[in-house]
# Entry
Amino acid sequence: MNRGFVLFQDDDSNFHMDYVVAASNLRADNYDIPAADRHKSKLIAGRIIPAIATTTAAVAGLMCLELYKLVQGHQRINSFRVGYINMAVQYYVLSQPGRAPTFTRDLCSLVWSLNQTLKLQAGISRQEEEEEEKEKGSRLVPCRCSVA
# Structure
């Protein structure tokens, strides 16, 4: 069973850190930043894993809090929160999400928002799609939307 590649930075016999040092020094040379020796690279690599684990745990925790609200059946948008975390300076912000902006098309008084989607079926022509929408009582209107 293949378990993937595991980086062992403390074991000097497998040359993993040699690869990390060589790759980071090539990148440093490419971007004109100072290269790091083996010891400094080992210290930097030793700090990355805990930082990734901490950030992942914080994001997963905030996502679970929002998932509880969905499971409980909250429907109003002001029940939910948008989270911003900057762990480098210990900055945490939870705010209410805003509604998606709505757009109108003057020719046919069509109103839509960025939360709405148009589902297209593969292998169906535009004419067949229009006929199917007419049967449902809705209409397809050609429109172009871009977000700046």
